[in-house]
Design brief:
4 helices
């Protein structure tokens, strides 16, 4: 894929397709990059990250919003931890609009919102993937929703709106410390977060580029 070739900063060490409604995680070392590719467009990717050396120091969206002075994540944004340390930096972004407000879907909230009984959600994905790293459900905090659009009005009203990402759009993040990244390829079918029909995404991990010739 052209986007993947353009987006990566160094030698690819891991490249995988995450199935529709699926989940994925990896440890990244400082300087390594993670590219998230929305292969078909309008597919939210729910994203969490943790310090790989001190997991209790994890992504903190209030810190991230305050220190970036923006409710949205895009090129140049930094992701901050509970201890206000820079965890990751957004190096590139072809979409330009990533949500920090709506959090993850869950079976429980969808029963309240839509009156449906479900067994799959971003929360259940997070629980299952965190268990691989001996992390409990209590470690789930507010997450970034890459490729998801949640506009808000001057009065503070918010809504999950139709996404603007196109097939092949991508975002590239660089690890600034050893991090554990956990994603859920959003299985939501009752609002536009995944275009009402969840689709696969691609993830690429690349080594830090060599300095000099």
């Amino acid at each position: 894929m052209g986007a993947g070739t353009q987006a990566n900063q160094g030698t690819i060490i891991r490249r995988e397709t995450v199935a529709a409604k699926g989940r994925w995680s990896a440890r990244l070392e400082p300087g390594q990059t993670l590219t998230l590719i929305d292969t078909r467009g309008q597919q939210a990717i729910d994203f969490l990250c943790y310090s790989a050396e001190l997991p209790l120091d994890r992504i903190n969206l209030p810190n991230t919003v305050k220190l970036n002075k923006s409710l949205y994540i895009t090129k140049g944004s930094k992701i901050y931890s509970d201890l206000a340390r820079v965890m990751m930096t957004v190096l590139d972004d072809t979409c330009g609009y990533h949500d920090t407000l709506a959090g993850c879907c869950s079976c429980e909230i969808d029963k309240v919102r839509y009156g449906v009984i479900k067994t799959e959600s971003c929360r259940t994905n997070f629980i299952a993937e965190l268990a691989k790293w001996a992390l409990a459900p209590s470690e789930i905090v507010s997450n970034i929703n890459f490729f998801m659009r949640v506009p808000f009005t001057a009065e503070g009203d918010v809504t999950i709106a139709e996404g603007i990402s196109k097939a092949g759009d991508y975002v590239v993040l660089r690890a600034e410390m050893p991090v554990l990244v956990v994603i859920s390829n959003c299985p939501q079918q009752h609002n536009p977060a995944a275009g009402f029909e969840p689709t696969p995404v691609e993830v690429i991990v690349a080594d830090a580029p060599e300095v000099g010739g």
